[in-house]
Amino acid sequence: MTKPGKSTRKKEFIESGCSRHMTGNKCYLTDYEDYDGGFVSFGDGKGRIFRKGKIKTGTLDFDNVYFCKELKYNLFSVSQICDKKNNVLFTHTECLVLSSDFKLLDESQVLLRVPRKDNIYSVDLKSVVPTKGLTCLFAKATIDESNLWHRSLGYINFENIKKLMRENLVRGLPSKIFENDYSCVACLARTEQYKASCKAKTW
């Protein structure tokens, strides 16, 4: 989602990454009450949630909408919409909120199923992407970043760094493609140490 500006105070967004409905305009709320919801961080700041209420549209009501006066826009949570047994469909031109009795006509049209856990719909790439094709989904690390991890991991081979990343074996190792530019001074020094050949002996 693009970062909203000052002119978005009256705009609404359907947000798949937002776990709760939130608004920055209390005029939209009805049946509201005081509520200590703590603090929330968003793209251009943070604020405190101290009220919640309802937003009624006539065809679809939004319950438990948090009010944060610092929020310059309104967010509607996909997971919270689905909690009311509604369905949400995104297309390249619009987002549709469908009634609970909506059914898929053809299951073969489903290309990917993503389960919901803790109000988030998360994709497990290990279960849907072949291992050989997995690296194409990651951005390339810079040369400096690649060399930094190479040295931090004890001058490990770059293929082994990629394996550690793919299998998530090192905490903090970013999910990027690490490339070797063969500029590591320590590794170059090791490759230049040649053993003297032994002269052949006749018995």
Tag the structure with descriptive keywords.
5 helices; elongated; 203 residues; Cathepsin D, subunit A, domain 1; 4-stranded mixed sheet
Write up what this structure looks like:
This is Ribonuclease H-like domain-containing protein. Residues 13-84 form the Retrovirus-related Pol polyprotein from transposon TNT 1-94-like beta-barrel domain. By secondary structure, the chain is α/β, with parallel strands linked by helices. It has 2 domains: 7-96, Acid Proteases (Cathepsin D, subunit A, domain 1); 131-191, no CATH class. It is 18% helix and 27% strand. The protein contains 5 helices and 10 strands; from the N terminus they run E-E-E-E-E-E-H-E-E-E-E-H-H-H-H. The protein has a 4-stranded mixed β-sheet, with no helix packed on it. A two-stranded parallel ribbon has the order 1-6. Strands 7-8 form a two-stranded antiparallel sheet. The longest helix is centred in the C-terminal third of the chain and has 10 residues, at 143-152. The protein starts with 11 loop residues before the first strand and ends in a 12-residue tail after the last helix. The model is unreliable at 1-9 (pLDDT under 50).
What is the CATH level 1 assignment of the largest domain?
A: Mainly Beta
Q: Mind describing the biggest β-sheet?
A: 4 strands, mixed
The CATH topology name of the largest domain reads: Cathepsin D, subunit A, domain 1
Give the mean pLDDT.
78
What is the alpha-carbon Rg in Å? 27 Å
Give the oligomer, counting copies of the same chain as homo and different chains as hetero: single chain
**Strand sequence of the main sheet, in spatial order?**
2-5-4-3
How far apart are the first and last residues' alpha carbons, in Å?
79 Å
Q: Roughly how much helix do the residues carry, as a percent range?
A: 10-25%
Q: Quick one: CATH superfamily of the largest domain? A: Acid Proteases
